[in-house]
Amino acid sequence: MMTLYVHRQSWLHRQPAGLKLLVLMVTSVALYALASLWTAGAVLIAVILAYRSLGPAGWSYLWVVKPLLPMFILIFVVQSWSQSVSAAILMLLRMLTLIWLANLVTLTTRMDAMMDAVMPLLSPLRRVGVAPHRIAFTVALFVRFVPVLMAVLNSLLEAWKSRGGGRAVWRLAIPMLINAIRMSDHVVQALAARGGVRSPETPVSMVQHQ
Amino acid sequence: MTLTIELNQVTLKRDDQTVLSDLNLTLSERRIGLIGNNGSGKSSLVRLFNGLLQPSQGHLQVRGHNPAEGPEAMADQVGFIFQNPDHQLIFPTVIEELMFGLRNQGLSKSDARERAEHCLREHHRLDWADRPVHSLSEGQKQWVCIMAVLVMNPAVLILDEPFSALDLPTRQFLTDWLLGLPQQLIMISHDLDVLAAFDRVLWLEQGQVRGDGSPETVIADYRAACNRAFSL
Predict the structure, then answer these.
(1) Predicted pLDDT at A199
(2) Minimal CA–CA distance to B33: which of B229, B202, B230, B214?
(3) Do A189 and B52 touch (CB under 8 A)?
(4) Inter-chain contact A144–B88, Cβ cutoff 8 Å?
(5) Alpha carbons A204 and A195: distance in angstroms, whole number
(6) Are A189 and B82 an interchain contact pair (Cβ–Cβ within 8 Å)?
(7) What is the pLDDT of residues B188-211, one digit of tens each?
(8) Residue B80 and residue A207: Cβ atoms within 8 Å?
(9) First-residue to last-residue Cα distance in chain B
(10) B175: contact with A, CB 8 A cutoff
């Protein structure tokens, strides 16, 4: 599971979210125009050094790519075979740079700052009847509940194993779903009890009365 | 405006089952405990106070407000703490969690942040501001839940078995802290010792009040009834 946010403060935490997202965007585009292996390598090293600057444990966050390694190997092999080894290396450098850079932004940006930066981009959605602050809220809720649902899954797995459940772990999908739905019921109540999801301009609630 | 909670012939039915029947109560004490077996109607009763449930018959008033206005409108009056902190912590970090209710009350972002930080500072927990909530212990999470409600400055604080997942020292710490708050406190608890310092205890059974009075007498009666019921 990737850690979505590091709470220790660093110089990167203090940069404005908009600037970080802009750098990420510019780098993504520029990387594709880049043909030199040396330059691509230099950019990657710069990103890795940025992780180091987060503190002694900074490098450990680079492990976020671990689950992707088999895919990287596959892409590398196919690229080397169909194009050339240097093209494959370039591809790999680009992918690693982008993933690590994007992850770095998430690690060092608080959710509300991120949403403030993205909100103006979402405002056209207002025309089709979607309030941007609801999307911002949904994203925050998502980030919050990833670890919660992981914990639920874990306890279900423990209950399954401790009663000798076999390898057909997929059968936990239904109880997991039921748990998630029941939990969402509780969250709705908790939300309503604190005033619902109101927009700053129009104090209309999202939660229906029971 | 009356500074009490008043129930007038309140009946609550859910799916054709009577959950609460014909309750007449005036709740004006500072700290009120609510006890009773599972399914006796405790949780439903407190959910009437902030409009999460609406009575099928009868009237109730909470500090001069009618909870029929709905939970969102009642949020300024009534703070509600649920059993499981993971169901009510809505935001990834502590400061966002505290700011949420304040923003709902119409505060600007910077004002909300200031008030939230002030609240954390008061409790000597300003260093929690940027912590991810999932990194906190269960007791710390429940504490954040209570602070997130308190920062909205409600007149009444309702707690639905808030300590069932907490260890003894944490329970003790939070109880002492809660008892020192200026808010009216209404707490459901299966931990009867916690309620000893309360002003009044209500014992619900099958949707009706079976005991009502000082903690010593009501809790003693409840214990006696529990012992009788299980000595077959």
Answers:
(1) 58
(2) B202
(3) yes
(4) no
(5) 10
(6) yes
(7) 999 898 899 999 999 999 999 999
(8) no
(9) 50
(10) no
Classify residue A6 by its DSSP letter: -
Distance (Å) from the alpha carbon of A86 to chain B's nearest alpha carbon: 42
Average pLDDT, chain B: 90
Q: Where does the pLDDT of residue A39 fall: very low under 50, low under 70, confident under 90, or very high at 90 and above?
A: very high
User: B96 and A111 in contact by Cβ < 8 A?
Assistant: yes
pLDDT at B159: 94
Task: Tell me how close the Cα of A67 comes to any Cα of chain B, in angstroms.
Answer: 23
Is A193 in CB contact (< 8 Å) with chain B?
Answer: yes
**ipTM metric:** 0.71
A171 in B contact zone (CB under 8 Å): no
Q: Name the pLDDT band for A5 (thresholds 50, 70, 90).
A: low
pLDDT of residue A117: 84
User: DSSP letter at A59?
Assistant: G
